[in-house]
Amino acid sequence: MSKIHLGINLEFVRHQDKTFEWGVAKAAELGYTHVEPMVHWGRELLSEAGYFHSVSMLDDPLRLKRCCKQHGVKLSGLSAHTPITKPEIGVEYLKQAIRFAAECGAPVVNTDEGPKQAWTTKAEDHVLMRYTLMEAAKVAEPRGILIGLECHQQYSKTPAGLDRILKLVKSPAIGLNFDTGNSYLAGEDPYQWLTKIVGRLVHLHAKDISVQHSRAERGKVTGTPVGCACGDGVIDWARVIKICRKTKRDIVFSVECGTVEQAERSIRHLKRLL
């Protein structure tokens, strides 16, 4: 039986206007054992000024490793979402994120197909995605880094669509980062879907959806940035845990919520179930 660890995506401190370091310290204080930082290309004002948690991939990757070691947590992966349907962006972004992950100690790089070009066909998009994923896999394989494809956009919103993307490139480096909230909002049964793909699971976004959010958007959207506190919404976490115990590897539940208070309630709820 695999082990489940409780981690958190640093989006939970987005509205705190604080740094990456502040977010890691807060996650450790709440009792999380893993964190999932967001990384970006180049430089941007809010992160440089210390008002945002995202980390530039131009920074020293050891910045992340040192900070996590200081607070006694590990990296579950990097949130490196980039549109793989747009290889002029996705190829170099993913390759850099993979190299960055290898040096900072993050085992997984999470991404999705992203918004597509308005003028490309479905067939063309899958050729473009294959190109991007092949280039990324060639960098990931020798470094032992896994790529977590997430259900989040127009093609990955259904089990069949995500499976088609997964099969574009045959590589041990390519797996799945399942998002419980996105799959639910897309109108799918998240438990049936998770059961079907659990053998390829490398990371899990533990996202709950409030009843109000469900009523307003289920079946109308392909996902959402963050959810409510785990246990406050519609997701049956005991059922998710039972399914994930069948994985061949240990899995981190990376909680995706919007506030520090929600993060605190989430870990209390999930710890009781574990």
Number of helices: 11
What is the CATH top level name? Alpha Beta
Order of helices and strands: EHEEHEHEEHEHEHEHHEHHEH
Largest sheet: 9 strands, parallel
The total strand number stands at 11
Q: Walk across the major sheet and give the strand order.
A: 5-2-1-11-10-9-8-7-6
What is the name of the CATH architecture?
Alpha-Beta Barrel
Q: According to CATH, what is the topology?
A: TIM Barrel
Segments where pLDDT lies below 50 for 5+ residues? none
Q: What structural category do the secondary elements indicate?
A: alpha/beta
Number of domains: 1
User: What value does the average pLDDT take?
Assistant: 97
The percentage of residues in β strands lies in 15-25%
The assembly state of the depicted protein chains is single chain
Helix and strand arrangement:
Blueprint: E1 4-9, H1 20-30, E2 34-36, E3 39-40, H2 45-48, E4 55-56, H3 62-71, E5 74-75, E6 78-83, H4 87-104, E7 108-112, H5 122-140, E8 146-150, H6 159-166, E9 174-179, H7 180-185, H8 190-197, E10 201-206, H9 211-217, H10 237-244, E11 251-255, H11 260-273
Parallel strand pairs: 1-2, 1-11, 2-5, 3-4, 6-7, 7-8, 8-9, 9-10, 10-11
